User: What shape does this take?
Amino acid sequence: MFKKLIQESMGKSPWLFHINAGSCNGCDIELVSVLTPRYDAERLGFKLAGSPRHADIVVVTGPVTKQSLPRVLRAISQVPEPRCIVTMGSCPQSGNVFRGSYSVAGPLSKYVHVDVDVAGCAPKPEAVIDGLALATQILKEKRGQMK
Amino acid sequence: MTIVISALQYLGYVLIFPGFLFCFLAGMLLCGIDRKLVAKMQKRVGPPVLQPFYDFFKLCGKETIVPASASKTTFLMAPLVGLAALVVIQLFIPVFSFSAFSGMADVIVILYLLLIPAMSVILGGAASGSPYAGVGLSREMVTIISCELPLVLVLLAVAKTVGSALGTGLCFSLSDIAAYQAMHGSLITKISMLPAAVAMLLIIPGETGNHPFDAAEAETEICEGLLAEYSGAPLGVYKLSHAIKMLTLTSLFVALFLGGLGTGFVALDGIILFLLCVVLTAVSISFVHAITARLKIEQIFKFYWTLVSGLALISLVLAWYGL
Amino acid sequence: MDLPFVKEALQQLFSKSSCAMYPVVPSEAAPNYRGRIVYHPDRCIGCGMCERVCSGNAITRMVEHLPEDQGDKITLTFNLGSCTFCATCADFCTTHSIEFTGDYHMVATKEEDLLVSGSFIKAPRKKPAAPAKAAAPEKAAEGCAAAEPAAEAPKPREDGKPVNDPAKCVYCTLCARKCPAGALTVDRAAKTWTLDEDKCVACGTCAEACPKNCIIL
Assistant: This one.
């Protein structure tokens, strides 16, 4: 009985943690604009958590630079299970214009398993909400399969 | 036989009515109403009122990670100690004319017990071994110290007013204060108590650690400060004790200043208490949240020890001279 | 102590929220929004300009030779996960076969969902009629020092590849510079204009670039 309750609650209260892995900040601005009164993701339960240990969904922006790579991996490893990793924008998905640069360590999918990609440069806040809703679905399924 | 019945009765008090279940439901509902009101004031839609319940159950479903540099027992036990202390305080506060453990506790005990949840958060933060928690716990200690002085002055003012009316000097027993208000009307109707009531309204967000006095838990500055290393069920218990603290402090305000509004029936009194707590949360927690920015820790200290203590002191002086 | 937002907070408590409730209320992108790419392979000529100018290296062009003179199957793939949506490819496309729609819902769980591709068959170039080809070497062989003044303007070829009018041409070499396939060789000193027919993709860039309008397709 509690398992069903916990699984339902997992879908209604996903907390986000945002990591900027060397981004140009365009995607970061679109992400925080999702929390403003116009799009208000808080009515769907989303909240920006201050610490990775409090988060369920990790949103990564920016091509993963060589300098930020160990920090990004460490922050992601601190997120407790079940967790969902969302890459926002085309930079973490493929490097976009920065691919092949001396300081870019490549797409994030080389290092961790990425669950959802939200493409765009930068994606519209509505597309971000779509991507986060899909990530919440995946999170619910992961919780259902745990233990 | 009567021992068994009274034991069951006390168990019912502890677990159900002003005890654990009531605290859980009412506290979380207060927290949800607070978030919804803040969102409305900021022209947003805001989360549903049941959101803190979803948050709590979700946190129960997450994995609990104990950091390698943490001391495990303190880390896991600290939240439970805070929760137990808050439920005990709620048991000692009378619901208008009904008091679960009458005669066993008075205002001074509550004053000491109110320190325990703050200490449990500080201990939990210290046990997690993270530098962010170190900064957070020093700020939390300063916040609690700065709220203690005006709280003591307010309680002294109320105790003196009721005591001089009953002819006993200082009256610290909460059930006596409730009985006095049931007969003579609420204390807030006396002019000399108004500054103390305003001071208490300002103490409530400081004690609960709500915005703008949440320098201890500053999300953007120190990565959630004290609770930075908590995850899963212990974090859920901390969020629960934060919500129950809101209920406890607002019902303390009702018991001290609005005690004359009760009927004789316990169930109705419970509902009236809850509604009054909602109104108080809206005024002292949500409204102040929506219109201010976060204060620095020095500003919090100065605010409480000058303005709020000044208000409480005015009330104490007026009460001392019998006005 | 100054509390600036008291009036606004109280007013907004009782007024409607300014939230565009997105998933419940659908919302359209602004006009001319550069969203998901739609590729029209029927209009494409496979010149490869888009691949050359793409800033994010998002376009790949694959050519598969079909047996027996059936031509080439050219497949263009657009990787939306690498695209900057700058629309430079659509600007450079001479046949307008790349279109940026207003669809902004580009959310995928697998990388394959973000690939837009299409292919078309490019018919083999027809061999030009023998007399025309035989006439040209003769003319060149005769030297034509006394160039016949403005003979008839050259006729366009049947396979769509460019023909130069030597009477108007000033050998400025602009066409050779602009040719994306590098099929033109223009020697300014020797005053020659040569077309490498194997490399030419008949995109028409040379004719657009020519300041004297002497190239006909």
Notes: The two ends of chain C are 79 Å apart (CA to CA). The first helix of chain C runs from residue 6 to 13. Chain C touches chain A at residues 17-23, 27, 29, 35, 55-57, 79-85, 104-109, 111, 114 (CB under 8 Å).
